[in-house]
């Protein structure tokens, strides 16, 4: 449901921020919010691809 989607989105946001910080981060890493959105979307798409959609 919606709560699981929210939790997955938050986890993806942390993951995207972490990966962005590792790749392009430095002392003044300011694009964290962009990578958090990208990470959340990618994680949600991957989980939908793996588990499929329950909607018919």
Which secondary structure elements does this structure contain, and how are they paired or packed?
Blueprint: H1 2-24, H2 32-51
Helix pairs in contact: 1-2
Primary descriptors:
56 residues, mainly alpha, 2 helices
Q: What about the largest sheet?
A: none
Average pLDDT: 79
Number of helices: 2
Would you list the SSEs in sequence order as H and E? HH
Count up the domains. Answer: 1
- The radius of gyration over CA amounts to 13 Å
Strand tally, please?
A: 0
Question: What proportion of the residues is helical, as a percent range?
Answer: over 70%
**Termini distance?**
15 Å
Q: What structural category characterises the helix and strand content?
A: mainly alpha
Using the alpha-carbon principal axes, give the shape: elongated
Would you identify the regions where 5 or more consecutive residues have pLDDT less than 50?
Answer: none
Strand content: under 5%
Structural features, described:
With about 55 residues, the chain is mainly α. The protein has one domain. The chain is about 75% helix and about 0% strand. It has helices at about 1-25, 30-50. Helix 1 packs across helix 2 (about 30-50). The longest helix has 23 residues, at about 1-25.
């Amino acid at each position: 449901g919606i709560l699981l989607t929210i939790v997955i989105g938050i986890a993806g946001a942390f993951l995207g921020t972490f990966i962005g910080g590792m790749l392009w981060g430095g002392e003044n890493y300011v694009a964290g919010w962009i990578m958090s959105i990208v990470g959340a979307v990618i994680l949600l798409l991957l989980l939908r691809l793996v588990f499929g959609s329950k909607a018919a």
